[in-house]
Septum formation initiator (Thermanaerovibrio velox DSM 12556), 99 residues
Amino acid sequence: MPKLRWVLFWSGASLVVAILATAFVLETRKVDRLAALVDKRMDELVALSRNNQEMEHKIRYYATDEGLARLAREEFNLFFPNEVVYRIEVVPEKPLRRK
């Protein structure tokens, strides 16, 4: 009988250790998955923050007279009176052939 008790004891102890090891491995995987998700969200947050900073910079720039003048020139082809505008056209040496 004493051997049977030790067998039962070690079987129970092995079962408990196996359950705890499985739980530990599963929780470790969950923590790793959540850490990866947090890293991904942090990268997205950093990208959005940079985008917001760029947009705020553009808003401040286009609120100035210089920014408005540049926007008017680039987007609407407007210019100040008595301002000389040069238009540069690039013409290739050989015309492009169709195949």
User: Anything to note?
Assistant: The chain has one domain: 2-76. Residues 8 and 71 are 84 Å apart (CA to CA).
